[in-house]
Amino acid sequence: MKLLKGIGIGLCLVTACVLVAPNAKADDSNEKTTIVLTQPVEVPGVGQHLLPAGTYVFKLLNSPVDRHIVEIYNQDETKLLTTVLTITNHRVNATKDSVVTFSERPVGQPQALKAWFFSGQLYGEQFVWDKPSAIEPAQENQ
């Protein structure tokens, strides 16, 4: 009798899991952020891109392998402009708003995207620049 009761409880649990599973969502925290740029900004990636002043949407790529890939779209998300590799970055205090930081650049050059922190989080995404792109501005700034 105990065996039948145990099997019955097990079947009920399996049935409950099967019924609940379709309603469970996978990790869809793509940290979508709309960003308004008031001046041109250079972003790393293949061929590096210069984003003119305007509105853009940043999202984490929903990849089962690596969550450190940022996709940058136009304002209405109809065109993927670039995909950028990032590494984890840490900040001391979280803010209620998303924050984008920029690297120092010589006068007359566009700002360079450095990091993106989603609202309320201590960890963000630091954009990875290839070595020549990182060294040139540093040499110009001495």
Indicate the topology.
Elements: H1 2-20, E1 33-37, E2 41-43, E3 49-51, E4 54-60, E5 69-74, E6 80-90, E7 99-103, E8 111-117, E9 123-127, H2 131-141
Parallel strand pairs: 2-8
Antiparallel strand pairs: 1-4, 2-3, 4-5, 5-6, 6-9, 7-8, 8-9
> Count of helices?
2
Q: Number of domains in the coordinates?
A: 1
Let me know the number of strands.
9
Helix content: 10-25%
Q: What is the ordering of alpha helices and beta strands? A: HEEEEEEEEEH
Report the oligomer: single chain
Please identify the structural class as seen in this structure: alpha+beta
- Termini separation comes to 82 Å
Task: Extract low-pLDDT stretches.
Answer: 8-28, 133-138
Average residue-wise pLDDT: 76
| Biggest sheet overview | 9 strands, mixed
- What gyration radius follows from the Cα positions, in whole Å? 22 Å
Strand content: 35-45%
Shape: globular
3D structure, described in words:
With 142 residues, this protein is of the alpha+beta class. It has one domain. The protein is 21% helix and 37% strand. The protein contains 2 helices and 9 strands. Strands 1, 2, 3, 4, 5, 6, 7, 8 and 9 form a 9-stranded mixed β-sheet that branches. The longest helix has 19 residues. 14% of the residues are buried.
